[in-house]
Amino acid sequence: RRRRRRRRHAFAYLDARRVIAIDEEAIQDGAVVWPLSEGKLRDACREIESEQERVRENEDDMDDFDAEEEEDESSPAVSLHLVVTGYVASNTDGVATTLGRDGSDYSAAVMGKLLRSSLISIWTDVDGVLSADPRRVPRAHVIPDVSYNEAMELAYFGAKVIHPKTMTPAISSDPQIPIYIRNTFNPTFRGSRIYLSSTTTTTTDTDRRVCGFSSVERVALINVEGTGLVGVQGIARRLFGALESAGVSVALISQASSEHSITFAAAADRSSEARKAIEEEFAKELDLNYITSVDVRSPCSIVAAVGDGMSGTAGVAGRFFAALGDAKINVLAVSQGCSERNISAVVRGEDSTRALRAVHAAFRLSRTTVYVGVVGMGELGRSLLRLLEGQRSTLRETFDVDLRVRAVAQDGTREELVALVRRRSGGDASSSADSITSAAYDAATGAGVVSAAADPSEEDDGIAALIPGDVSSISRHVRADEVAHSVIFDCTAEERVGRLHPSWLDSDVHVVTANNTALSGPRKLRRDVRRAECARGKLSAQYLREVTVGGGLPIVSTMRDLLGSGDEIQRVDGILSVSWSYILHRIAPPMGTGGATAAADDDCEGDLTTPPLSSPESRPRRHNDGTPRCTFSEAVREAVELGLMEVDPVKDLSFEYTARCLMVLAKELGLDDDLEDVENILTSNPSPAARRRRRTKTKNDDGSKDSVDDDDSKEEDEDEDEDDATYADRVDALMKERVERAASDGRVPRQVSSIDVKTNSIEIRIVDVPSDHVFAITPPSNECVRFFTARHRQYPLIVQGPSAGIDSTASALLAELLRLMRSKVGPRSGSLSRTRSSAVLA
Question: CB count, 10 Å around CB of 187?
Answer without folding.
Answer: 9
